[in-house]
Design a protein that fits this description.
By secondary structure, the protein is mainly α. The protein is 84% helix and 0% strand. The protein has one domain. The mean pLDDT is 86.
């Protein structure tokens, strides 16, 4: 071990990302590992949500095209009842199931049936909203907390660097720079995790709001159709 290394400082020129990580204090290393893992998990969520929301929009478009084409509602219900594969189909199936149950049991009070169908659709929208928003909280948490975690690693690293500089009794930039770079690397990783997480959270929150608005609009229109049918039969 060289005299410089015995103080905790490292030889000039060792500034690659791998060397910065390997030279870091154990606390800074744990911070870096945590931030890298959080960043990887964020990207996995971003990729999964991108494809999931795109698929949800395509399936809703396809369902609305069939629904408004004059297709028989009973036939559409039989097709989707066993396996509604998207939020709007689940909403339609839930309302139709309540409609059919009420007919089978003879519970055809106009107000009672309308109220039950609205409640069933509200519950379904709430359930689908929860499903669509799953894992977005992780993006929000990483987006807000990662810079501070990285800053903690930097502060800790700089404290160690100054302690080592004092022990070496040298203020040469070549001696000081590796310790400072090692500490700042933690902040860079924090920002690397936080920036895509914030952008992804804002984008996906907006996507979820639009999908939920489509579900609420469809629920209002479908409720009006069922209400008209009840009026015609009464």
């Amino acid at each position: 071990m060289t005299p410089l290394e015995s103080t905790g400082l490292h030889a000039p020129g060792e500034l690659s990302m791998l060397s910065l990580f390997l030279q870091a204090d154990i606390v800074v290393k744990l911070v870096m590992i945590g931030l890298v893992m959080a960043s990887i998990w964020c990207w996995a969520i971003i990729i999964e949500k991108t494809f999931a929301y795109r698929r949800a929009r395509a399936r809703m478009d396809q369902f609305e095209k069939v629904f408004w084409s004059g297709h028989s509602l009973d036939e559409l219900y039989r097709t989707l009842a066993t396996r509604p594969n998207h939020a709007m189909a689940a909403l339609f199936v839930a309302a139709m199931r309540e409609w059919k149950r009420s007919h089978e049991t003879g519970a055809l009070s106009l107000l009672g049936l309308q109220s039950r169908i609205e409640k069933v659709m509200d519950v379904t929208i709430s359930r689908e909203s929860t499903r669509l928003e799953s894992r977005l909280l992780f993006l929000a948490t990483v987006g807000s907390a990662a810079p501070f975690i990285g800053l903690f690693g930097t502060v800790w690293g700089i404290m160690n660097a100054f302690t080592s500089i004092a022990a070496s009794e040298s203020t040469s930039l070549a001696v000081v720079a590796p310790g400072i770079a090692e500490a700042l690397f933690a902040t860079a990783l924090g920002l690397l995790a936080a920036i895509p997480a914030v952008i992804g959270y804002n984008k996906f929150s907006n996507d979820v709001s639009k999908l939920i608005a489509r579900l609420e609009g469809f629920a209002d229109e479908f409720g009006a159709i069922l209400s008209r049918q009840l009026d015609e039969r009464s």
